[in-house]
Write a structure and sequence with these properties.
Layout (H helix, E strand, L loop, with lengths): L2 H28 L2 E14 L2 H5 L2 E3 L6 E9 H6 L6 E5 L7 E11 L4 E3 L7 E21 L6 E3 L3 E3 L2 E7 H4 L4 E7 L7 E6 L1 E3 L10 E3 L2 E6 L1 E10 L2 E2 L6 E8 L3 E6 L1 H4 L5 E3 L2 E2 L7 E8 L5 E2 L5 E23 L5 E5 L3 E9 H4 L8 E5 L6 E6 L1 E3 L4 E6 L3 E8 L1
Parallel strand pairs: 1-4, 7-11, 16-20, 17-21, 24-27
Antiparallel strand pairs: 1-3, 2-7, 3-6, 4-5, 5-7, 7-10, 8-16, 9-15, 10-14, 11-13, 12-15, 16-19, 18-24, 19-23, 20-22, 22-24, 24-26, 25-31, 26-30, 27-29, 28-31
Length: 402
């Protein structure tokens, strides 16, 4: 860098320094009058109790601010900040649902300045809604699992309802209230005071409402558990031309809860007897459970869905061979019959698939010597059909020594 460049830089620095000294002189000695706009000065609402007394509610999340034009000595204006001002909007007058233009009053200002807004009038827009309330039921969400071998009964809640109040826009969206309680590894009753939240119909949390009470007391009984099969009981019969092909319960097993000395006596849970004479085709019915005294079913289940599969009854006859068992090799045997005509009925959908291999007919020749005998036959048939008749009940057998 040459000497000439250095001189130019020094001249610029000297000029800036002189300008700064002059500014300090003017501000310190002369301190002229200046005007400035201070933005986003907060406005405080007063006499807000009149809102509720007017059966109205403040729409949440509103920000009340104005921009102030102030004047004063330069140093005072320069140092003034939004928080140095106290502005109020009086809510004690006439109010209505919707937008309300509320005048703003200047209660105090920063030292040495004056507010000189155009026309000297300021206002804010305050949105109000109708003040409403509603009562909704409280449900309890249980989280966590009890210790293995235990289960919980329906929680006892006090109170059972919550009062929701506030702006109609928010209150009307509330569908339910709930509390959440953790029972992880519990093996005895659990008691707790838990906070309440409210949900809309989509299950989303609703904010900006008042909930009473804010907390509820919850008692969760915890008892020993046992899993047992479900037995569907029936009474009476279907019409003669119908057959019950199958019974399918929505719950094949249930967890029951109770004291140890009661649980050990219970091996199954039955339904109340379902009257088959009331149906003529396949149906699904909600059938009550016959729950023993002092026993609870996990989940508060009182009934189960049962499918009753009904089909037309069809009759069929097939010829089934007789199997003669326990023959003696020292004898010869002559059988009057070697086949039995078996007539049976069953569901139409399965009858085409049934043939003689699904049956077993035996005649036991054990300990029989020479002679002629009328030997009983024994029939084994599938459980899903009903045997109507057999062509014979006994078969003549003649035995001779070889």
């Amino acid at each position: 860098m040459d000497y000439k460049d250095k001189e130019q830089i020094m001249a610029i620095i000297a000029s800036l320094f002189i300008a700064f000294i002059l500014w300090l002189y003017v501000m310190g000695e002369k301190n002229p009058i200046q005007t400035k706009v201070i933005q986003n000065v907060e406005v405080n609402l007063v006499n807000t109790e009149n809102i509720e007394e007017s059966n109205l509610a403040l729409i949440p999340n509103q920000k009340f601010t104005v921009d102030l034009t102030v004047t004063g000595r330069a140093l005072d204006v320069y140092n003034a900040k939004p928080e140095d001002f106290r502005l109020e909007a009086d809510m004690g007058g006439y109010l209505k649902k919707g937008d309300n233009n509320i005048p703003v009053e200047v209660k105090s200002t920063a030292k040495g300045v004056q507010v000189v807004n155009k026309n000297g009038y300021m206002s804010i827009k305050v949105k109000l809604d109708l003040l409403v309330e509603k009562t909704v039921p409280i449900t309890i969400n249980i989280t966590g699992n009890t210790k293995a071998g235990y289960g919980y009964v329906k929680p006892v809640v006090r109170p059972t309802e919550a009062l929701i109040s506030g702006a109609a826009t928010y209150v009307n969206s509330v569908a339910s209230a709930y509390g959440q309680m953790d029972i992880s590894n519990a093996q005895s009753d659990v008691t707790s005071s838990i906070p309440i939240k409210v949900l809309d119909k989509e299950g989303r949390i609703v904010q900006n409402v008042t909930i009473e009470p804010k907390f509820i007391d919850v008692f969760v009984p915890v008892k020993l558990s046992k899993t047992v099969p479900v037995v569907v009981k029936t009474k009476d019969e279907l019409p003669k031309d119908k057959v019950l092909k199958a019974i399918k319960a929505s719950n094949e097993t249930l967890m029951i809860l109770g004291d140890a000395n009661i649980l050990k006596k219970i091996d199954s849970i039955s339904t109340v007897e379902f009257d088959l004479s009331n149906i003529t085709s396949s149906v699904t019915k909600d059938v009550p459970l016959d729950i023993p005294k002092d026993i609870d079913v996990f989940g508060g289940i009182k009934s189960i869905n049962v499918d009753f599969i009904v089909e037309n009854k069809v009759e069929k006859t097939i010829s089934v061979p007789i199997e003669f068992v326990n023959k003696n090799n020292d004898y010869t045997y002559n059988f009057e019959k070697e086949y039995v005509e078996v007539t049976f009925t069953g569901a139409e959908s399965i009858m085409k698939e049934i043939d003689q291999k699904d049956f077993s007919i035996t005649a036991d020749l054990k300990d029989l010597g020479e002679g002629t005998y009328n030997v009983p036959i024994k029939l084994q048939a599938p459980s899903y059909i009903q045997v109507k008749s057999k062509s014979i009940e006994k078969v003549f057998v003649t035995i001779q020594k070889k």
